Amino acid sequence: MKGLQWTKLPQNKIKGSVFEKMELEYKGIKINYEELEEEFAQKVVEAKDKKEEEKGPTMVQILNPKLSQNLSIWLSQFKSISHEEICKGLQFLNTKMFTLEQVKQILTMVPSKDEIQNIQAYVQGGGEANLLPPAEKFALELNKIPQFEERLKGFIFRLSFDSRKADIKPSIETLRLASKEVLESKMFVSLLEVILEIGNFMNESTPRGNVFGFKINSLLKMADTKSSDNHKSLLQYLVIVLEKSAPKLLDILKEMPDCTPASKVSLSSLASDVALLKKDFELVQRFVETLKEQKDKYYDTMNTFIAKTRDEVTQIDTNFKAMEEKYAQASDYLGEDAKTCQPEDLFGTLSHFVNAIQEAKKQNEQLLANNEKMKRREDAKQKRQNEQDQKKKGGPPQAIDNVVEELFGALKGGDLFKNRRLTQQVNKGAVPPPQKGPVPPTKPPGLAAKMTAPPPPKK
To answer: Where are the domains of the chain?
Structure first.
């Protein structure tokens, strides 16, 4: 007859359960056992195929199917290593055999005590261990390791400590430096002084005028305040003022370089990371102390690690508290409350403002270039218009002026009439035409006197 494949409830679970109330001898409804046996009789299969005869027995799965599958996938990473060797490596911190992620994964797949007891009950009840899937067999091996989960947590802390430290320490230092720069920057004080004066002047006749200070986030509103022609912002105007009177203040980024990276650090998350690091260290430290009498390889390795790490954890906690104090000073200095104003907000405002100054400077340069380009276009347009107007009046004035100037020059020197007489003499043959090329040598004065004067013109 076929059997019902169920999982036996351990004896200690029966007490207090519904099964405890049941009679040892069944007195329930009538059951037709002959019919039951007939319905579920084990069929005898004739040997028709050699392969069917050689088919092995079915595996007995006891763990949750999903957990069993996940464990099998995890074990597939260690194909050439036995379950005993894998468990030994986990027990004694074999860092060469496992990565941090592999140890984290196996910690999430540790079978519950009830599941382990079910597997043990199957074996102790006469079940064949060979019929257990790899996941169930591995679970039995894991159960042999004393305080297995605590050991894994210590293993994970050791493997992850350096990376956690590398994430925490730079963030603490960045916030400390940014706070220090705010407290020590002289340029920032001078810049705020100029802005306060400009703001009070603009708000003189309003309830917002005659103030002695302003919220730091007001700095971002300067870029939104536009001029009458809407061509430039108040921040661009500030840059123009600074370029004329105090250009050094435009290099404020040199005194506050860490505001931008500090704006990306969450103080609440950083505080949580530091607190969790301390808590995990203390838990691992207490667990390692409980193994002092055993003095196995795990204890020796972890005790050395704890001694080395203790000072680093203490220093991280000390640096964090010092940074918090420095940030509180910077917040008070800027009129903010460190409890309500987070660093990402405060330094985010300062970073945006400092970078906006550089952007406003570029905008001013572009605006100036556009104005010059526009002026050149207007000049060219006016020149073309003047030329068109002159053409309509009879020609360019410059050409007329040149002709008149040449005529007056010729009349003044007598060249106009001299050239006219010379032309007439050439035409009558009295004087040879002028030769091209080099000028011939001058004739003696005597010969010039003997030359016959041209006859007077006929009346």
So the answer is: 65-159
